[in-house]
Amino acid sequence: MHLSSFAEYCALLQSGAGDVEMGNLVNAITTNLTSFFREKHHFEHLRESVLLPLCSSSEKSTQKKLRIWSAACSAGMEPYSIAMIVKSTISDLSGWDARILATDIDTNMLVTGRSGEYSSEQLANIP
Fold first, then answer.
1. At what angle do helices 18-29 and 6-14 cross, to 10 degrees?
2. Bridge-partner residues for 99, per DSSP?
3. Bridge partners of 64?
4. How big is the CA angle at 80 (ends 76 and 83), to the nearest 5 degrees?
5. Which of 41, 63, 95, 106 could form a disulfide with 30 if both were Cys (CB 3.0 to 4.6 A apart)?
6. Is there a contact between 29 and 60 (Cβ–Cβ < 8 Å)?
């Protein structure tokens, strides 16, 4: 498709045929900075201030439920990091109903996250 001006591009986005292009635009302009255990202190806070107290308070409970939402998860490294922190903190998850929801506006990044395949360089920061 060849457009000769920004105005034509805006018109395309606003037309009925612009739905697919709107997705392409969003994917093109999003920032996809991601890595495993990026901003390590967030994961330490999750362990110390959320997971450990949750484990203590639910020791006697028969209903052990955990819900975590990783918004703007990009290529999925953050939710996988969260899963690793959860697993290392709650060693026996068999009695838990634990779920991590990972969302992002960039559909290309969600495809990468869904596949769970990363390069050895991307895996280097995993403790």
1. 120
2. 67
3. 96
4. 145
5. 106
6. no
pLDDT at 19: 82
DSSP annotation of 120 reads: H
Whole-Å CA distances, 10 to 4, 22, 24, 28? 11, 10, 13, 15
d(CA 8, CA 112): 32
Which pLDDT score is estimated for 119? 92
What whole-number distance in Å separates Cα of residue 69 and Cα of residue 26?
21
Of the chain, the end-to-end C-alpha distance in Å amounts to 46
d(CA 97, CA 87): 13
CA angle 40-106-7, nearest 5°?
Answer: 135
Local mean pLDDT, 10-residue blocks, the chain (127 residues):
85 85 78 82 94 81 87 90 95 90 89 92 88
**Site of tokens 């109903």:** 97
What DSSP state is assigned to residue 102?
E
Q: pTM here?
A: 0.76
